[in-house]
């Protein structure tokens, strides 16, 4: 279900407030988001996955066992697992700029003379103001 326009605006305000409060944390969270990998990274992950699959099946054919366990197949599985993680978590290497919140009215220009407050305190104030307006 898509977000309404009001919800999208609120989400953008929260995001810009997060960038204004702690841009280093916000950029690290942005880089770690799942599903944001480049085409080249996906291609590498697929190639590594195929190598792992070959080792998995080849380990059963060669039948090299350590302690009664097919060790080559285990290595192949671990390689396949690592390729899956690479495909999911592999970022594109770009970091978002610090001026992401610019132009939305939530930048530092408005609060130049105001004392610095925590993000949670500002969100609580906004929440309370909504109920006061009704």
TrEMBL record:
The chain crosses the membrane at residues 43-62, 68-90. This is Transmembrane protein. Keywords: Membrane, Transmembrane, Transmembrane helix. Residues 118-134 have a biased composition (Basic and acidic residues). It holds the Pfam family DUF3040. Residues 92-134 are annotated as: Disordered. The keyword Transmembrane helix applies. It comes from Gordonia insulae.
